Amino acid sequence: MVLSCLVCKLKINTADKSVSFHKFPKNENTKTKWLQVLDIADIKPSSRICSHHFKAEDFTLGTLNLKLRLKWTAIPSINLKRNLQTDLSNVQTNDVSKSSVEAKMCLEVAMEEIKEQGHKIRQLKKKVNRLESVVCDLRSLIKELKYKKFLSKSNDTLSEPSLDESGDEFNNIGEIK
Q1: How far is CA 77 from CA 8, 19, 28, 59, 148, in A?
Q2: Model confidence, pTM
Q3: Distance separating alpha carbons of residues 80 and 131, to the nearest angstrom
């Protein structure tokens, strides 16, 4: 059995590496909120939701493996329309336009535009993930520079370590390191 996203039906084995899949929360209050926003009554234990349905601020960087982790307070809020194909197929073409051919063409154009927008969103999410990784790397570098006293803790400016005549390195307040 291949698991897929409950909302958009994206399969886990076909998703790219930038997409993560998340179980429903164990916390009953949060779980109830998820069920309400998704407009569903019950779920299976294997039900998952992919990262396409969460905002960037719903994620935090894991401390051990530096992977993005879903915050326990996160609620799905993006692209929540379930089964879009089914919902659109229930629309009678005669109600949309006088010509069924014209209505079908409009629907095809709309579906293609939705597909293109989805592709753009996925590309932007990949870019966000890469940039978040760069920010994490820069934060680590700043921390390391502060630790090695190459970066002042007070104003984040680079400082050259000073040496006395014996070659001992001094910190900014004149103490030997």
Answers
A1: 13, 16, 18, 13, 42
A2: 0.45
A3: 25
